[in-house]
Amino acid sequence: MTQTEKLTWRPFAPEDFEGAAELLGRTWLPEFDEAAQRAASQIELAHYLSQTTWSLLAERAGEILGVVLLAERGREVTDDGWAELESRLSRAAEKDEALAEAVRTEMDGVREEAELEREYAADGPVGADAAVKLLIVSPDAKGLGLGGRLFSAAAEHLREKGAKGYHLLTDDACDVGFYEHKGLRQAMRRRSQASWPGADPATDEFYVYVYDQEL
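Request: output the structure for the sequence above.
Response:
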């Protein structure tokens, strides 16, 4: 049996939160120390989950190897208390100066992407029906093709639901070539004004993007 055949595919469950946040932190926030990484990743994940209408998770032997989250226009978000958790975790982080600074740094980037997304959606574009809020794959799963499989499953779900298209937000810290290979087009591009982990807007050219695709 191959490694891929041992994978389990299922929707995201509340008990996956800690493991998925840990994956997000060590993959996207390696510049942060352990406490800051944990605080920022949990708040960011809760933020995305508060908008999620559909999800898919890949795991092997109890280890989360990949997650994709979708937000679909006109579909009800399952209320598992994620928005309340985001607020509670944010309030707790504010009590520690170092944690508060780490969270502000990460979430300022998230808010900047959200503003770009609002501008994108204002003109009624082809990708307005849905957004990929999160696509993350563990470095431990390299070579298994999980990113492509999660992405394809999300697109197939949207086709089945009659979506005309979808979009996603990304930035220079990610491999935008992956999305171009999948047939998405760069719909918007803007130099970031936020301080991202490892990037200072005063000295670095760091860009955020909207990519979209018609289905």
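Residues 97-121 form the longest helix (25 residues).
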